């Protein structure tokens, strides 16, 4: 009652006065009750009361007295008659209780969607010489007196000299914001979930994704020696194969020794190991020969080469196994050559990798993916909350009733934005606190720019939620659209891998999505330390602002269409 009173521009005192009066008139329970706890008949009477709260000049009522007891029905009719006589109110209503229509000034008898007669009740009774409207209705149907329809004269159009309503009415925005805040307060568990879910998502993502795989089972066959505990490494060691295996990262690779080469390879084929390492019998002798002379045969090369049989069905693990083996061998051979006073650069690949210009020497998948995860969470959490609230209002009939009372599409959009901006800020900023405080996310640029991009992504999601809920009636349709948007965003928006790895045409499509360029912008701010003067950064800013305008336009058009 307060909400619809405020929308109509009433003062709080007037709303309270009218509420108590209508509650007494319609025999409603305590006004502190929530509508959801009332019976169906009581809910209909509350709906009736909201139509009467602001004393409108025109009332259109659909069977307002259905299901009511005779005394209450008589009380309502007396009040309606008083409105028409003393308040100059026009009332148009439908009813199946034909005799109660006897009190109307004009009655229209309708059948199959056609008004067969429209005239004052007394004139209708007199014309058919009957005592009840029910008999008159029967006579109209039997005689099919189409000619009895009263033709109203067509009035010339009048020019409305009144000024148009302002595009923004403060009391309406106040009522809309109060209603939205009240919804959030009454759905407190949902609001808490919207704050906790992004934090949990970020926490789980950073804990599970991006770390180097460990405890990988590797089959090993060492034909040179059965010794697994080597003496300290020194020049001219006789069991270099043992030392090499000792240099492999024991946390990353769990070595399982086999005596037979075929058995080790079978363990990879059977899925018991990710790779098999095979070392030849005369490995040390032939390896030293390769270091000390250029006159080596193919047999020497073959005997001093460690063979690796790897399972490439899991690409990432295969890449990490290669990395672990290369790193272990490089450290092993470097220490060995230093002990033999041989320049280890002489046997290294003629490539030199300097310190990275941007990023870390040991890049992390978490650092790469986190910008996309941050923006995606901000976008979809804001979109889900906004679309959900609007869809519920539409389902409950609040949205249409609000529009009927003259609330503009602009006022509804503005109230949702103003009300949910605080919620959106908490939704977007709390994951950043977790990332920087707990997981030490790389930050080489401006924290203000990071916050700005994240909040802008949340605002874009809010606008997307408004556009979806404005154009789809049912909550399940809104849910389908949001889920349907989520997966293309995750796949195409360069969150888990760069778009350079995509098909050319998909790359163009991905670049047009709201979060693709924005993700690259945020990644450049975090890891490269770039600002808005760099094209990569400001292009992402332009893209996400264009999508905000598009979503707002779609939402505005959807609300205008529904209003019509």
From TrEMBL:
Membrane topology recorded in Swiss-Prot or TrEMBL: Multi-pass membrane protein
Keywords recorded for this protein, A-Z: Membrane, Transmembrane, Transmembrane helix
Domain ABC transmembrane type-2: 333-562
Domain of life: Eukaryota
GO molecular function, one term: ATP hydrolysis activity
Main location: membrane
Protein name per its UniProtKB record: ABC transmembrane type-2 domain-containing protein
Subcellular location: Membrane
Residues spanning the membrane: 184-205, 372-392, 413-439, 445-466, 478-499, 536-559
Record GO cellular component, one term: membrane
Species this protein is from: Pyrocoelia pectoralis
């Amino acid at each position: 009652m307060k909400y619809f009173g405020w929308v109509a521009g009433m003062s709080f005192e007037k709303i309270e006065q009218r509420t108590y009066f209508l509650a007494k008139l319609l025999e409603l329970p305590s006004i502190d009750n929530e509508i959801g706890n009332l019976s169906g008949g009581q809910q209909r009477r509350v709906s009736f009361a909201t139509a009467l709260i602001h004393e409108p000049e025109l009332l259109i009522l659909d069977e307002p007295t259905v299901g009511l007891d005779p005394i209450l029905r008589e009380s309502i009719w007396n009040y309606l008659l008083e409105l028409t006589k003393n308040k100059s109110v026009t009332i148009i209503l439908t009813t199946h209780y034909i005799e109660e229509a006897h009190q109307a000034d004009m009655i229209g008898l309708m059948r199959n969607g056609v008004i067969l007669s429209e005239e004052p009740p007394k004139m209708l009774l007199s014309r058919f010489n009957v005592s009840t409207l029910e008999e008159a209705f029967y006579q109209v149907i039997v005689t099919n007196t189409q000619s009895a329809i009263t033709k109203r004269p067509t009035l010339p159009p009048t020019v409305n000299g009144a000024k148009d309503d302002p595009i923004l009415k403060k009391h309406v925005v106040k009522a809309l914001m109060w209603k939205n805040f009240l919804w959030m307060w009454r759905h407190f568990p949902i609001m808490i979930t919207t704050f906790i879910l992004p934090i949990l998502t970020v926490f789980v993502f950073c804990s599970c994704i991006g770390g180097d795989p460990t405890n990988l089972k590797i089959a090993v066959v060492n034909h040179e020696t059965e010794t697994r505990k080597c003496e300290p490494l020194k020049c001219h060691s006789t069991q270099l194969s043992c030392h090499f295996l000792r240099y492999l990262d024991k946390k990353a690779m769990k070595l399982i020794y086999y005596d037979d080469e075929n058995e080790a390879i079978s363990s990879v084929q059977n899925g018991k190991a990710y790779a098999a390492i095979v070392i030849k019998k005369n490995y040390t002798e032939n390896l030293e020969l390769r270091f000390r002379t250029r006159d080596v045969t193919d047999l020497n090369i073959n005997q001093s080469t460690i063979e690796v049989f790897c399972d490439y069905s899991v690409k990432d693990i295969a890449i990490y196994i290669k990395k672990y083996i290369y790193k272990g061998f490089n450290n092993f051979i470097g220490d060995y050559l230093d002990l033999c006073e041989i320049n280890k650069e002489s046997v290294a690949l003629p490539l030199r990798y300097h310190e990275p210009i941007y990023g870390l020497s040991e890049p992390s998948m978490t650092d790469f993916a986190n910008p996309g995860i941050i923006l995606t969470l901000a976008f979809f959490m804001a979109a889900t909350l906004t679309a959900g609230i609007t869809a519920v209002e539409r389902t409950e009939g609040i949205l249409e009733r609000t529009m009927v009372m003259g609330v503009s599409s602009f006022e509804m959009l503005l109230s949702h934005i103003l009300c949910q901006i605080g919620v959106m800020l908490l939704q977007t900023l709390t994951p950043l606190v977790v990332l920087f405080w707990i997981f030490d996310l790389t930050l080489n640029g401006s924290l203000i720019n990071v916050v700005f991009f994240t909040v802008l992504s949340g605002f874009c999601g809010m606008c997307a939620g408004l556009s979806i809920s404005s154009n789809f009636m049912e909550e399940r349709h809104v849910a389908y659209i949001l889920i349907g948007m989520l997966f293309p965003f995750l796949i195409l928006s360069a969150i888990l891998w760069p778009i350079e790895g995509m098909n050319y045409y998909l790359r163009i499509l991905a670049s047009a999505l709201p979060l693709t360029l924005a993700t690259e912008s945020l990644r450049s701010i975090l890891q490269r330390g770039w600002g808005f003067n760099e094209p990569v950064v400001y292009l992402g800013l332009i893209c996400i602002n264009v999508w905000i305008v598009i979503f707002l336009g779609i939402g505005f058009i959807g609300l205008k269409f529904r209003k019509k």
